[in-house]
Write a structure and sequence with these properties.
This protein has 258 residues and is of the alpha+beta class. It is 29% helix and 31% strand. The longest helix has 38 residues.
Length: 258
Amino acid sequence: MEKRELNISVRGDLGKNAAGRLRKQESIPGVLYGPHCSPTPVTISPKGLRVALSTAAGLNTLITLQVEGDKSITGKVVMVRDIQANPLDGAWMHADLYEVPLDRKIFVDVPIHIVGKAAGVEKGGILQVVAREIRVECRPMAIPEAFEVDVSALEMGRSLHVKDIQFPEGVRPDVEETSAIVSVVAPISEEELKKMEEGAQAGEIAEPEVTTEKKEKEGEEAVTEEEKKAAAEGAKKAAPEGAKKAAPAEAPKKGGKE
């Protein structure tokens, strides 16, 4: 891992006005922090920072700080954790410097470089890049600049996964080994695309009232069945009384005078 140096100074003036004055002097405010360093406001040269980061490692570049008159900070190794830029012109406005302990493992995102032309693409397939970087755990001096993934032998309908990358000794991926990195998929024909669009439109046009009406009918049918059962039960209970009322009068006995 290549290391660079950066000259900074400890910042005394704080606030928006002080930050504005720094930018007019072609400097930007920043903060230095880490496990063995309390948050310290610093002044950084954006030009010097750009030079320090102009390596293949990019933001993963290890930077050794040089501070005039402050031996407690001089020699510390940092990485740039965040850079705030002006959304209009892209000018750097603020930077966070994180002190890196060289004797401990850290987590970093390493870029993935796709090389070669996939065999499946030669046959009409489409290369689909799923991940452009991968998070790994390792010591700072062992951080890879990038991982090259050769897709030359990748056929249609196939994928390359994290497990297909050859990781250097001491570097461990912090993602599932089955996670896809790149795939070659079959192109969608115009007919299939048309069917998908028609299906989507049909789904938007579908009226939910049909389902509601069906549920209402089902509810009506359910109530009707219950009413029928209740009526039948009531008829059974009322049957004996009805039978007594409907029984014919007893016939007069024979032998009596009329």
